[in-house]
Amino acid sequence: MKILRTVKEIQAYAKAMKAAGKTIGLVPTMGALHEGHLTLMRAAREKCDIVIASVFVNPTQFGPNEDYAAYPRRFEADCEKLATVPVDAVFHPEPAEMYPDGYCTYVNVEGDITKKLCGAQRPGHFRGVATVVTKLMNLSRADEAFFGQKDAQQVVVIRRFVEDLNLNVHINMVPIVREENGLARSSRNQYLSAAEKEAATVLSRSLRRAAATYARGEHDVEKLKLIVTDTLETEPLASIDYVDLFSFPDLQPLQRVEQQSLLAIAVRIGETRLIDNVILGGEAM
Length: 285
Fold this sequence. Notes:
Pantoate--beta-alanine Ligase, Chain: A,domain 2, 2 domains, six-stranded parallel sheet, globular
């Protein structure tokens, strides 16, 4: 597995792979890898000749009061996990390599898809995501890129700018990977104490209750959201950021679920903000 640390190194590697006629799959990550990330890598491995993972804690997608400095950085352990897939190359630049002195260009996705859910809670977040993902796709010359359903709004935003900017990359969304207790895998789970980790299972329980009610024929949006809210409020350690339900993938408001839809939540367990979701009305691609 090659470790690429500079823009020139990843460009040269991608150029050589393309010259050899290889298809390239990209899996962008911020490290602190877990089984959810590795599932993305395996999906890329199945579909592409070459798999490039990035491990880069991107400063431009963090707000001033968020956890950029504290975000877990465990590159050696990450490499051990990547080698098991196996991944062909990992791109691990320093922030100054991606944003050198004088850097002033950003990709900003306008429209209401970035003004709701996490976009409403984290101003500027998706500008940072769109910018770094655009750069990573350009540097890797990716044919395919892989992202997790847990960040479903992020997938919607990425697909939007890929289409709008005519980028020749196919965006794959891979289903959520969960722990045995139902908790969605997340690097931020490492912040949770044992008691908080148990409390955090309320997220998936609330979504399962709503999905089961939908499956029994309840399609009223407000009633489905109320099931989630009521369940979350049974957990004293949980503080709700949002519970919302939109059409998927266009994220438009609904009164009734009569099409594929995204039921998404953000909840703080102690000081840790977690997100989760379920897609109603069929499996999303």
